[in-house]
Specification:
Pdz3 Domain
């Protein structure tokens, strides 16, 4: 994860109670054959070994590792919510972990000082915890993937966000999934999206964190082993031009299959999913989220798919996690 200060040095405007984050902020690595990615996360519940991160941080991984305070630990997915961009991991090794207190988004006000915590350069050999400080621009706003301001990971690869905190903190990609803290060291959000000014507007930084009130609602489901709109695979949206050149319709590539999920038990291979229960998923996350919005954990859906290598269209029944 990448974390830079907003103005030069690391101690400018940094709240004095950030140090406890060292034993509560995680470098998260998600790997699969031929791929390694990652970001940050934070300890949500020490007693159960639960770590919260963004879904896009673990998306595409089949094996997961969490490193806290220099100690790496194997992790597994407890629950995932792609359309909320949140996921919960569990580690069995809980030694030395601490958790930060949670605040309420309603306690924030524009102009309040906040600090993002995360790991520059994840995945890396020796990730180092870093911080970036700034101020709240909006304590609660909506962010749409088609709004034209997203810089990372990009508009097609993210859902819409109904409740986010907008700040001027100078984030870089490695911050994703890490905690946004208030001046008292309490978690007020999950660092998620880096924005850039719209064409013709001043080049100011716009960064966004999923508000902690929304996080609490989603994690209440995920921590029990349920998921929201996820059937156990990575979700990759290919470039529209690539699909056109290959003669394929728009859709989401469901790969790789995560071990221990229902998809793994069903031996699902690489599939291009074009519709869910007859509703097109389109060419980006918002379309997928619209198609899966009414599917609860444990429900079965019919997917229209094109399977490799023969590229034959068919339908498969999939149970959502």
């Amino acid at each position: 994860m990448l974390v830079l200060t907003l103005r030069g040095t690391g101690d400018v405007d940094t709240p004095p109670r950030v140090d406890p984050a060292r034993a509560a902020t995680a470098a998260v690595t998600a790997s699969s054959p031929g791929r390694e990615g990652g970001g940050s996360g934070f300890v949500f519940d020490v007693s159960e070994g639960l770590v919260v991160t963004n879904f896009h941080v673990i998306n595409g991984g089949t094996e997961f590792e969490v490193e806290v305070n220099g100690r790496a630990r194997a992790a597994e997915i407890v629950g995932a919510a792609p359309c909320e961009d949140l996921a919960v991991l569990r580690v069995q090794d809980r030694a030395g972990l601490e958790q930060l207190p949670l605040s309420s988004q309603s306690d924030l006000r524009p102009g309040a000082r906040v600090v993002a915590v995360g790991f520059p350069g994840v995945p890396a050999v020796a990730p180092k915890l870093a911080r970036a400080s700034g101020a709240v621009a909006s304590a609660e706003t909506e962010l749409r993937a088609d709004g034209g301001i997203l810089a990372h990971p990009g508009p097609r690869f993210l859902p819409d966000y109904p409740s986010v905190i907008q700040t001027d903190v100078a984030l870089l990609p490695g911050y994703s999934g890490g905690p946004l803290l208030d001046a008292g060291g309490r978690v007020v959000g999950v660092n998620t999206v880096i924005g850039t000014a719209k064409p013709g507007a001043p080049g100011e930084i716009e960064s966004y964190a999923i508000g902690i009130d929304r996080v609490k609602e989603v994690i209440a489901v995920l921590r029990t082993g349920g998921s929201l709109g996820w059937f156990g695979t990575g979700l990759v949206f290919p470039a529209r031009s690539a699909g056109t050149r290959a003669g394929l319709p728009t859709g989401v590539i469901a790969t790789p299959v995560v071990r221990g999920t229902l998809a793994a038990r069903g031996r699902m291979g690489r599939l291009l999913v074009t519709a869910v229960n007859g509703e097109s998923v389109g060419g980006g996350f918002p379309g997928y989220c619209e198609a899966t919005r009414n599917l609860a954990s444990g429900e079965t859906a019919t997917l229209d798919v094109i399977a490799e290598p023969r590229r034959r269209a068919s339908r498969v029944e999939v149970r959502f996690e």
